[in-house]
Structure formats: C-alpha cells, structure tokens
Records
---
Amino acid sequence: MPTDGVDLRIEKFDPARHDRAGFSCGVDRLDNYLKLTAKRQQVDDMTRVYVMTADGDNRILGYHAINLGMMDVTELPKKPRGTPAHGELPILFLGQVAVSQSAQGRGIGSILMHHVFEKASRIGEEAGCFALVLDVMNDGGEAAFARRCAWYRDFGFQDFASQAGRMFMTMKQVRAIIQDPVV
C-alpha cells in the first residue's frame, strides 16, 4: 500500500510535477477530470485542485476540486436572517473528491474532506461564505449514488429538498468540525 508508513501531503495541483496519467479511482468521469480538464480550469481561474501525494512520490493518491459560487436562498428549507435582497448567498462549491483505487479504504477521502473544511473556513473568514455545496455524482448506478450520499451525510451534509444529489453544509457547521475534528 503506497500510504503505509509514509508521510502524506496535500498541495495545489501542479501538472508539471504531479503524475496524473496513472490516476484511477474507478470512476471514468473523475479520472478524466484530473487527466484532461483540471489543468485548463485552474489556468482559467475556474477552480482550484488539491492533490494528496506521499512524500517523495509524485503519484496522486487523491484529489479534490473547489470553486466559488452562489446559491438561491429559496433552495434552503429556511431563509437565513440577513439574506441579501437579491436572494443569493455566497458558497464554496466542492466539485470532486476522488481517491485512487490503490489508496481507497485508508481514510484518504476523509483527510481530503477535512482539507476542504479547512479551506472553506479560511475562505469564509476572508470573503464571507454561507455554505459548502456539492453535487453527488450519480455515475455507477443507484447503489453507488446512495453510498456516496451516505458518505457525505456522515460528515454532516444535508440534502436540498429541491434537487436530488445536491447537498450543503453551513459554514457554522464547517467551523464546528474544524474546531472539534473527529478522526
């Protein structure tokens, strides 16, 4: 196993340094995103991708992608106090979380999620951010979709009533996780 007894690090994706060619998480869309799209989207300032590697190794064990966005307040079960008149709230959107098949089952996904929470907390402190939002991938059938939804719910994400597979967590929840991490 490539993570046993090795220090791991998470850093911003650098296509010149990080080996994305051999990455395979078992979901073609996630593999292809890293191999074909992530570099271009970073260059064009549409997203930021962070990768996990083992010290001294340029192979990617896992990654996540984040970008900023807005959400319509009507998607929430209850309108938050102080919502702007235009009805949109600032969010951090979690685009992908993927772990290489060789590293799955070792807690890499949870470590990457904690990194997302840390980033979200910092962004919220600097610019204001109401929530962390994601869309659960439905690739692989209903069982895979249900498993992914359950995984995100275990972190505290809540479902949007208006859209199956769209989930959110308020920044208050994110800060509580950062202050009292359960690993």
---
Amino acid sequence: MRALHKPLAATALLLALASQSANASPRCLTDCTPRIGIVSAFGAEADILVEQTRNPRTHTINGKRFTTGTLRGNRVVIVLSGVSMVNATMVTQQLLDHFRIERLVMSGIAGGVNPANHVGDVTVPDRWAMPMEVFWNANSTLPAPCGSPRDLGCLGLKLATGADGQPLPPFVLRAPSGEPVETGLFMRQNYVLNNANAPAGGFMFDYPVDARMLAVARTLAPRLERCGPRARRADGTLDEALCVKQQPRLLVGGRGVSATVFLANPQYRAYLHEVLQAQSFEMETAALAHVAHANGVPYIAFRSLSDLAGGEGFDADVGALFASGLAEANEAEVTLAFLEAWGAAQRRPSPARGLARK
C-alpha cells in the first residue's frame, strides 16, 4: 500500500502547483494577448472604432460581439455594452474574464451637469462616482439605524462624506411654491472587495481614473468639429441646422457621475453640480470603474456631452448633434487621439532604458 503513496503525493503536488499557477495568472478564457479593452455604450461610435481596427477578428460570447485587432498602434478589443449600469458591469467583467486586459477605456455620450459646458464638448473626468447609491431616509435628518446619527455599520453600509468628513447633504426638492420638499436621499459609499483590501474589503465613493492615462489625455489636441459628417450637402455647402453653435472643446478633469436612471430632473442636476461639482451624468462609466477597481485594472473614460441633463425646452444643438453624426464623430476622434498618443508614449524609450543601452 505504501508504494501507492508516492504517485498519489506527486499527483497532489502537481495539482497544487497547477492551482497556484492558475491563480497567479490573469484569466483569459478566449484570448491571452495583452490588450486595451474599449467599452462603448453608443453603437454608432463603436462602429467607427471597429471600422478603423486593423486585422479585426470577431469573438461572440454569450451573444455579445468582441472585436480584437490593432487600433492606432495598440492591440485592442472593442465591445458595445448597451445602456445601463447593469449592462456595463456585466460586459466589463466578461471582457476581463475572456481577454488579457491591461487597461480599460470607456467612451460614449453623457448629459452635461455643469451649465458652463456646451453640447458637443468632450469630457475626461478624473474620477467617477455613483450618487444614486443612497440611504433613503424619511426626511433630511441624519439616519441612525444602528443607534447613533450617521452610523450605518450594522447594515454593512457607510454614508458618503465631504472633505470635512461630514455626510454629504441630502437632496431637497423645491415645490412650485418654493417650499422645500425633503426626499431623505443620502448618498452613500460602495463596498468593494479585491486582492488589495481582502479579507475586510473597503468603502469608496470616488473611483479615480489612472494617473498615467489622464496625463496623456491632458496632452491631446484633437480636431473636434462643430458640424457632423452628415451636415455637408451634396454640393459641398454646410447645413447650419446640423451644426452646433459653440465650437466643441476637450475638457479634462472634474467628477463624472453615473446612475441607473435617465436624468431629466433639473433640480437634481443642479444638486449634483452644487454638492459634487459634477461635470457629466450617464449610466455606465462608474459601473465599469467599480469592476476595474475590483480587478486592479487601470481605466479612463471619454464622454461627449449631448445636452444639459434635465434641461428645459427644446435645444436645437441636441438635434444637430445626433442628426449630423457629430456625437459619435467627435467622441471617436478623442478616443482615437488618445490611443495614438498612448501607443507613442509606450514605444518611446524611457531615460532609464536609454542609459542601460549606453
């Protein structure tokens, strides 16, 4: 019987080593080539990126189309998430499970929050948050479900706080008469568990974008158009009805916010700008940011402003942005400019490597 122990022990050792090796390596169920993962929430823009991808190859996973290839000198995989936080979460994790993703890029359309910005501007926030992750109290009194004000520990929750360490103020509506209407909506932080903070996990409100990627974004000078590709008539003249009034700009910095709602409430938009100094509002990026943070993958996001979230009345610029194809054209232009600059930066030898060669 003892003779059997040696092969059994050897088999157990091999299985243990294989398990350790698998745990130490990134999962890549479909393709293990290191790539930048690009998630787009807007189909027309994803089509532009795919059209410019060299040597494209399509992988269909659970009905979703993932396109691999080379884009502006970078090995990429491009996927359309579809609208919503749930879709963005699911697709981002699929991307990380099936491909070897070294960095993530999110691109698409957003509603503006800062009234100083214009339709057609492209924003690159330096952090993202989820303001609709809330504790819904009966009124504006600090919640005290665990015995003392602001303590949510017994529920496994934590309120969002400002720079002064105090809970952020709840949203208060204004009735037509001007009287305040308390909603009891207190923003809270998200719990996240990953290899860095296991086993206890931790709480986050802001998800910072990658510092290196943001630094490259600050160097960009993309050619943003005022008129979309469909604004030019057959005779070469421009249809001004398909052009936005203000020359679009690239705006880097500030906070972006995402939630599971389509925001059409001007009072809530003003609250987000006042309390969070938010620049844009949409339904995907902060979910991608959460997944990226949980998996330890750097990310950045580019968002073209389609309107003032919750803006009142008809805005001709909004119609021009979509009807002319300007929304996807300008957004894709920034994404492509970033990829080109990022690829060039990676190919450029660092001072340390240069000295080593000497």
---
Amino acid sequence: MSKATRYFEPSQTQVFIFMGTSGCGKSFFGKLISQELKVPFIEGDELHSESNINKMKSKIPLEDSDRYPWLQAIIDKVTKLANEKNSSCILVSCSALKISYRNVLRKNLIEQNIIVWFIYLKVDIQILKERMQKREGHFMEADMLESQFKDLEEPNNEENTVTVEANNNADLVKKIIVENMSMQ
C-alpha cells in the first residue's frame, strides 16, 4: 500500500474500499474482515437504485450517469456512519472501476475529514466467471463481466491503494488484506 502523503489526526475515520469487478470478493472479504475486526461494513450493492438493479438484471451495463448517484449514496452512508458512530474504521464494497469514480469517492470523503484507502481485489476473468456461475440470488450475472473489464481502470500507482491478487485461497487473501490495513 502506498503511504499517505499528508499527516492525519488519530481521530480521523479511515475507510477501506474493497474494489474490483463483480465476483472478486468485495462483499465476502468486507463482511469477513468487518466481523473479525468488529468494524462497520457497508454493502455498496445495497445502495444501488432500483433502476440500476433492473438494468443489471436485464444485462444492460451501467453508464457513468447511473453510477454517480450510486457513488453519492455510498459517500452519504460513509459520512453518516462516521459522524453517528464516531467510527475510526469503516469497510465498504464498491466496484470503483474507473479512476474518475475513485476520485469522486476520495474528494468527497476527504472533504469530510475521512481518510480513503482502496483495496483492489484482482482476479483472473476465468476464475471470476466460475465464481459468478456458482453464486445465487445476485443481480449481476457472469455474462456481464466483459462490460466491467471494459470499464476497469486498474489503480496503478494511485495514492493510498493496494492490489491484492485474490485468485489465491481466501485465508491467504484475508491475511494479506488485514496486514495491509494494519500498516495504516
């Protein structure tokens, strides 16, 4: 993980955003680590509008105009939780596929005095397809992966980011994530 380029007050909330394409493990690791560390977890998928969910169910890729209100809903939820619970750490799942989406999250949360970290869960597309074909009850289907990879701008050399190869076994991936989080 890159080091922060400014100094932060110990009382500041840190938000760790698990990002990547559908099926990479954002929700799985977010929930798992949230329970282990006893910190709040925000499931980004739950903040999608009904029209976004209907589009994805209909196999229509989301556009920027669909995603920006969703990103704002995530920002609002993180800010509210940080202020209400005085949480020092919050975990969030959010695809954040494009740098412009990550910049919106960064800018708006930093303005609320919240430190933002991205944990990019990188997984081979073939493994993702296999994972997604096995899961049930999710609005995002495996044949939508191509559109996500088309939009994906990997966070190379972005401040406060780490890339975790999430093809590995879950225990190892979790260990790597927690170790990186504890260094902050």
